[in-house]
Amino acid sequence: MTVRFGVVVFPGTNCDHDTKSAVEGLGYEAEFVWHNSPHSELDGFGCVILPGGFAYGDYLRTGAIAAFSPVVAAVKRYIDDGGLVVGICNGFQVLLEMGALPGAMVRNRNLRFICRFVDLLVKQADTPFTAACRPKQVLRMPISHFEGAYYVDDAGLRSLVENKQIVLRYCDADGNCTPDANPNGAMFNIAGICNQRRNVFGLMPHPERASDELLGATDGRLIFDSIAQFVSAPSNVYGA
Amino acid sequence: MTRLSAILKENNLTKDEYERIVEGLGRAPNRVELGMFSVMWSEHCCYKSSKPYLRTLPTTGERVIQGPGENAGVIDLGDNIALVFKIESHNHPSFIEPFQGAATGVGGILRDIFTMGARPFAILDSLHFGNLDNARNRYTMSGVVSGISSYGNCIGIPTVGGQTLFADCYAKNPLVNVMCAGLAQKDKVFYGKAAGPGNLVIYAGSRTGRDGLHGATMASAAFDETSEARRPTVQVGDPFAEKLVMEACLELMDKGLIVGIQDMGAAGLTCSTSEMAFRGGTGLRIDLSKVPRRVGALTPYEMMLSESQERMLLVTEAKREREVLDVFKRWGVKAVSVGVVTDEGRLSINDGAEDVADMPLALLVDGCPVCNRPVAEPSGIARLGAFDHEHIDLKDAIETIIACPDLCEKRWVFEQYDHLIGTNTVVRPGSDAAVMRIKGTSKGVALCLDGSGAKTALDPYQGGVAAVAEAYLNVCCTGAEPLAITNCLNFGNPEDPEVMWQFAESVRGVKEACELLSVPVTGGNVSFYNETLGENVYPTPVIGMVGLFEDLRTVVRHRFQQAGDVIFLLGRTVPRLAGSELAKVVAGELGGQLVPVDLHAHKRISQAILKLGRDGLLQSAHDCSEGGIAMSLLESCFGARNGSSSGVRVLLPNEAEPISWLFAETPSRAIISVKAENVGRVTDYLNKAEVEHLVLGEVGQETVEVNQSQTVLLRVESDRLRQRWAESLENMLTGGSS
Known catalytic residue: A89? Predict the structure, then answer.
């Protein structure tokens, strides 16, 4: 059976169409989930994606208002039930604000919006979101954000490291996580993390923008393919 | 000053215009009506100085679905796909309040596009600032770029290209021109027409406040010392609100629920109501008491003239009202019926029980007397003699030119723009033209903005020709067929006969180039009064061109692909540095006589590049413009993946004097590279097509090398040059003095 992705649409979400068409381009199904949807509407999705954008205008603080929307309560229950949830860019910010992942985002080190392709080191190729990658593989994807410098306190960072929750780190083309390869000042070059249970993944880069040969980048497919493979495995069916 | 003349001055109307209003109404206008005439008859809204000239431009063609006169132009891309596009200026507000001025410029042009039923899919901007050694200019530039970034990124439309240029004449009159393109189904294009008497008029979007009062009038006068005090005339943008309005409107149009639609931009309610009714050949009756307000105590005058952002006016059949309001409600957008369409040919405004204004539409929209402004050729356009370049070292010249503000890399600018959202950007910023794919088809669109104020100042006619010609060549270099243009004509004070002469000459140039190259004008914008304290900007026509790929697989990039590829120079080089970037940055001089564009030769070269590209024979193609052959070669070397760059080995013709030959900006030239095995085929084709050409050298690995006969004139590491080119702008913005 084809894997179905749910793509959440908050007012102000603007990567919803891109995400849906990237997923569909890989042969999976995708449906939009409206921000005031009840929990039942998430039933049957193999994975729920919180896409990029400016949910509720990102007024107050990125992701802060979205964290109180009706669909987020549904997403929380979906997570508790073991469902896979991915937050991309603004979606990552929402996951932080709703407490599904630890830490916070601050403004980029240069205090400017940054849209550019970056290299990412796959630190954990053993999550449902990265299993199709080789360990230590370098992925190329774009980032596009103003508040993307990941921050967590020392204890939090130690916990992320100990529990192997750091999934993607900014690196150079050879896979070295140097300060120069860090585009936004994120702590420990962190570009993506998962929760301890490994069913929630937040990342600042945009895999949906790196899933098409014509656009010059295809590494993003590995993220969606990983999820699909995981969901399709008979022992791992969530939500269905 | 009499009371009447004081009121007229405040409303920027002349005595003659006032008399025309009285005659047309058959009575004296009240204050509200006078305010409405003031904005509708402003230069910004009614083009009273430029109309006679704009009428000469070619505006029709087999692909033109909608030319000038609507919210945007529309062209046919085949297979029921229409491209909707337009450019607009937001110059005056961007000086007064750079961030909001530029942001609302983006918001305004986006509304023009989605108003026609098209989902916007690309933004380009042409920016002109004063030199960066001045702190206020750096502030203006930073503010403008972050304003565009903030609005475009939030609403989620990619900013994919444009130009950023500098000269001191733009210090107090920066130019912020924003072009937007969107895609619609050809059979679902909507127009700003209020048709069908009895239909309802619906107001949707943000509430009306006092912001932007008289913005259009402000944009129709020169600046002086008090200009900063006009900050309240600049609107404040809310891209989140616009995103919701846009999604709701696109859904309404997709469902066929509305009859006509127009955004409220300059002159707000006044302009949208009167233009829609005038185009529809109907009339409107509007009740202001129903219009949502931000504050309670707004007067009718303020409501009619407010330029609050993110507002739309729609016409729908009465039986559809509920469905329309429901769609807005779902998107969280305020919407309410405020009036009806009539067949009276009048715009009638009441505020509850009180009649506020009542005017014939023909008078309000089309009654402004055209100004036949005097035109005079200036006596002293700077004529630079022979620019003394004998003592310039080639290496110094190259190092200077790659780091100069106009030619250095603009990454600092375009990385602040989300240029990838929408997942359609095939060729990214920093190229001759941006290329966007059209999802679900093999087609694509190339878009570019071109124009040189400096060259137009030297020769306004040639500047007009060259702007169109360069855009045409840029589009051809990517492999797309040029289809049409939109233009933004930025000039000084039209009451100055010499400015009007510049304008007349430039438009003549644009017209002749468009006719010969068969690219119609589908709309645009004129911005006059770019004058502060008596200083006018360079006459700056900016051309936005769009081109079509039937098959995107043939897209050609400007970067060299592989060492060993053979480099050709197409076109004839006249080794003259008049108006060149080198003369400007080394000698600080703007002068001399431009080499005229030979439009026939230009078309042959451009079409030859297009043909070679489509036949898959080009590895790269890049036009030669600012910085001449030297800059074109270097740009083709720079910017491969991961910031690496390729090298180049060039052999100059024996008779060429290196500096003038490498840096001359003779029009109608391009650098192409081809695989060694295709040199014969390419040469044969160029000979057959009568395109002047010579083999200039070959693509190398790591060094830039220039030779002449047996002598090495220059050998330098390409990556070192690239780094200098890439770091220059940020250094100027952060390390400058004063």
Answer: yes
CB atoms within 10 A of CB B673: 27
Q: Which residues on neighbouring strands pair with residue B347, listed in sequence order? A: B284, B359
Reduced to 3 DSSP states, what percent helix, strand and coil does chain B have, rounded to the nearest 5? 40, 25, 35
- Looking at the partner chain, which of A21, A54, A146 has a beta carbon nearest the beta carbon of B423? A21
**Strand, coil or helix: B379:** coil
pLDDT in tens, B244-255: 999 999 999 999
A208 carries an active-site annotation: yes
> Which residues of chain A does B425 touch, with a Cβ-Cβ cutoff of 8 Å?
215
Among chain A residues, CA nearest to B426: A215
Q: Which of A1-15, B43-57, B578-592, B644-658 has the lowest mean pLDDT?
A: B578-592
The full DSSP string for B248-310 is HHHHHHHTT--SEEEE--TTHHHHHHHHHHHHHTSEEEEEGGGS-BSSTT--HHHHHH---SS
- Per-residue pLDDT, averaged over B266-290, amounts to 93
Q: Do B243 and A54 touch (CB under 8 A)?
A: yes
Decide the pairing of beta strands B81-89 and B73-78: antiparallel
Give the residue from chain B lying closest to A90, CA to CA: B154
Residues B681-733 have pLDDT tens digits of 999 999 999 999 999 999 999 999 999 999 999 999 999 999 999 999 999 99
How many contacts does A have with B, using Cβ atoms within 8 A?
A: 86
pLDDT top residue among B318 and B2: B318
The 3-state secondary structure of B327-364 reads HHHHCCCCEEEEEEEECCCEEEEEECCEEEEEEEHHHH
Residue in A15, A47, A97, A206 annotated catalytic: A206
* Res B386: pLDDT: 52
What residues of chain A lie within 8 A of the CB of B241, using their CB? 57
Residues of A with CB under 8 A from a CB of B: 11-12, 14-15, 17-18, 21-22, 52-54, 56-59, 112-116, 142, 144, 146, 173, 206, 208-209, 211-212, 214-216
Q: By mean pLDDT, which of A176-180, B105-109, B390-394 is the weakest?
A: B390-394
Of residues A89, A171, A177, A194, which has the active-site annotation? Answer: A89
- Helix, strand, coil percent values for chain A (each to nearest 5): 30, 25, 40
Which among B150, B332, B423 has the least Cβ separation from residue A212? B423
Q: Which residue of A has its CA nearest to B241?
A: A57
Q: Torsions phi, psi of B333, nearest 5?
A: -105, 130
Helices (H), chain A: 16-25, 70-80, 90-97, 154-162, 221-232
Mean pLDDT rounded to a whole number for chain B: 92
Supply the pTM of this predicted model.
0.95
Residues 6+ apart with CB under 8 A from B380: none
| Residue B688: burial class (beta carbons within 10 Å; 0-12, 13-18, 19+) | exposed
DSSP B386-425: ----TT--HHHHHHHHHHSTTTS--HHHHTTS--STTS-E
Please give the Cα distance from A113 to A209 (Å, whole number): 17
d(CA A196, nearest CA chain B) in Å: 31
Position B45 scores a pLDDT of: 85
* Structure confidence at residue B738 (pLDDT): 40
Chain B residues within an 8 Å CB radius of A17: 422
B604-625 pLDDT, tens per residue?
A: 999 999 999 999 999 999 999 9
Contacts of A54 in chain B (CB under 8 A): 153-154, 156, 239-240, 243
Calpha distance A193→B200 (Å, rounded): 53
